[in-house]
Amino acid sequence: EAQVTQNPRYLITVTGKKLTVTCSQNMNHEYMSWYRQDPGLGLRQIYYSMNVEVTDKGDVPEGYKVSRKEKRNFPLILESPSPNQTSLYFCASRGQGAIGNEKLFFGSGTQLSVL
Amino acid sequence: QKEVEQNSGPLSVPEGAIASLNCTYSDRGSQSFFWYRQYSGKSPELIMFIYSNGDKEDGRFTAQLNKASQYVSLLIRDSQPSDSATYLCAVRGLEAAGNKLTFGGGTRVLVKP
């Protein structure tokens, strides 16, 4: 089954304790991206990757890191989490190209609470 | 000014009626337009996309695009309780912008039996 797998589904942590949210896709997609969703603000892009070893900042990259060492994996790293990073996080992927290949496939989300 | 704007709702619609959702965007060079549906506690799923001015129909859904006025709308005909969800408008800018897809804040739709 084609899917984007995110883990964990829920995470409660404390300020300053490094954490990693994993994301893996089995569709051989080149493009992967991380979003955070906050009430009233919609989905805001954190980082995206066009392919292996190619990553770039989205709209709200501060406090986050990513890596793309393999095509299928795109982990999100919070080196020193703060309470303002409490949010619902989604990983997404899609193939390259334009028309007909634009659908974003989303993971099931990670609800993060930073105390 | 937000790049993609939607009325947050809730938009309350009787079962069987037409739900009309609107979205405006600021980047006049935007190329592609999408509607995602998100049920509470779930991830977004694509329901419609449109590239050209005019209407595009898919089942009970119709997307309408007017690039001159910079708005895109979604009509849901014969609304069902299962259509109760948040609908996210998303807009892709020029390729030079790095494939950026910008989402609006979403419109919450409630279909009442």
- Percent helix range of chain B: under 10%
Largest interface: A-B, 24 and 25 residues
How is the biggest beta sheet of chain B arranged? Answer: 6 strands, mixed
Q: What is the H/E order of chain B?
A: EEEEEEEEEEE
Largest sheet of chain A: 7 strands, mixed
Low-confidence stretches of chain A: none
Broad structural category of chain B: mainly beta
For the residues shown, what is the average pLDDT of chain A? 93
Annotation field: number of helices of chain B? 0
Silhouette of chain B: globular
Shape of chain A: globular
Strand content of chain B: over 45%
The percent of residues in helical segments of chain A reads under 10%
Question: Which ranges of chain B are low-confidence, i.e. pLDDT below 50, for 5 or more consecutive residues?
Answer: none
Based on secondary structure, the structural category of chain A is mainly beta
Order of SSEs of chain A: EEEEEEEEEEE
Q: What oligomeric state best describes the polypeptide chains here?
A: heterodimer
Average pLDDT across residues of chain B?
91
Distance between the termini of chain A: 36 Å
Give an account of the 3D structure.
The complex is a heterodimer of chains A (115) and B (113). Chain A is an all-beta fold and 115 residues long. Chain A contains no helices and eleven strands. Chain A has strands spanning 4-7, 10-13, 19-25, 31-38, 42-51, 54-57, 65-66, 76-78, 87-94, 105-106, 110-114. In chain A, the strands form two sheets. In chain A, strands 2, 4, 5, 6, 9, 10 and 11 form a seven-stranded mixed beta sheet that branches. In chain A, strands 1-3-8-7 form a four-stranded antiparallel beta sheet, with no helix packed on it. Chain B has 113 residues and is mainly beta. Helix content of chain B is 0%, strand content 54%. Chain B is built from no helices and eleven strands. In chain B, strands 2, 4, 5, 9, 10 and 11 form a six-stranded mixed beta sheet that branches. Chain B has a five-stranded antiparallel beta sheet with strand order 1-3-8-7-6, with no helix packed on it. The chains are: A mainly beta (115), B mainly beta (113). The interface between A and B is medium-sized, with 24 and 25 residues.
